[in-house]
Amino acid sequence: MNAFWTALVYVFLAELGDKTQLMTMSFAVKYKPSVVLFATFVAIASLNLLSVGLGQALGKVLPIFWVNLVAGIAFVIFGLLELRPEKEEKAEEGKPKHLGPFLTIAIAFLMAELGDKTMIATFAVATREHNFFQVWLGSTIGLFSCNALAIVAGHFLKNYLSSQRLKYGIAAVYIFSGLAAIKQAFAPS
Predict the structure, then answer these.
(1) CA dist., res. 74 & res. 77, Å (int)
(2) Rounded CA gap, 5 and 7, in Å?
(3) In this predicted model, what pLDDT tens digit does every residue of 120-158 receive, in sequence order?
(4) What's the Cα-to-Cα distance from 36 to each of 47, 107, 151, 170, rounded to whole Å?
(5) Residue 160's CB: how many other CB atoms inside 10 A?
(6) From CA 48, how far away is CA 122, in angstroms rounded?
(7) Considering only CA atoms, which of 151, 109, 124 is closest in space to residue 19?
(8) d(Cα 63, Cα 65) in Å, to the nearest integer?
(9) Positions of E strands within 37-186
(10) Where are the domains of the chain?
(11) Would the N or C end of the chain have less CB density within 10 A of its end CB?
């Protein structure tokens, strides 16, 4: 079980205070905690399958610079879109007006974690420990438990903050996360 505990501890510690933990907290303010928990878990489990399964190969194929740059730009755009005034939207006949909370959360989480330090930590553990299932399970539980704490905190925060403050807070988290990813893309290796 060494691979399990190594992955769990490294990934949990890497995620503490990370941008995706803040993003997950902001989702818990906006959506039902159960939806955020489930979407986050599905995204984490999928991401860690990819991370452990491909290991170093993905890092060679997809340069971290481009992953960080694209994710960063996307998050700045998400933040700016969050600042738009709300208006009554009617879905066009046969067309959904948005992805819905589950897909929004899962996709945003996946994008935020691509190339992130928790993904790199999972890669590092996977290259040293050769037990696929233990590394996947440990990294999944480590990442999920850290974000579950953020979901609980976000759920309680919404009771104390106005919807306007929440909207600005969520936008700030997106924009900050995007700028941090863009900065990381240009940081010397």
Answers:
(1) 5
(2) 5
(3) 778 777 776 778 888 899 999 999 998 998 888 888 777
(4) 16, 12, 7, 15
(5) 8
(6) 7
(7) 109
(8) 5
(9) none
(10) 2-84+98-186
(11) C
